[in-house]
User: Fold this.
Amino acid sequence: PGVAQENPGTGRLIAPIIDLDDSPESGSQIGIVAPETDQYLGKAFGGYRLEQKIGQGGMGTVFKGRQVSLDRVVAVKILNKALYENREFIKRFEREAKSIAKINHPNIVAVHDAGELAGRHYFTMDFIRGKELAQVLSEDRTDLATMLDWMRQVCEALEHAHTKGIVHRDLKPQNILIDTA
Assistant:
């Protein structure tokens, strides 16, 4: 009990507690495009080499990267340039990283590092090899037992986060990943 079980053939569900306050009613600017972050692709960003852009939200852009010192694949989230002078968003971004770092659960991504490089705030977390739940649901007909298992895992992750005083506030199929590794 309390530990997610791997579902053979479908992977385990990872409910990332990210973008804790990234909803329109919170005043976030969802849909900001941050093409300036593409300048980092294939280059070093601190101790990380950014290999591929994998996502973008109102607060930041997420890259698949490699932590050079440990030769480990990670996800690197960089605060959007349009927000990097806004103290409110910087505080929110830092609060997000610190909140995730307090959580240790098999269905919640772990934060490894956070910092600032040349005025660009970032944090790194587990890289999940898989797909968003929204994409999985649109591509195939997942059986009811598997979907119920995924929802059980989401509930366990949320329950754990709530015991730490953390509320997700943006739970949706696009923010739930199915780990296929």
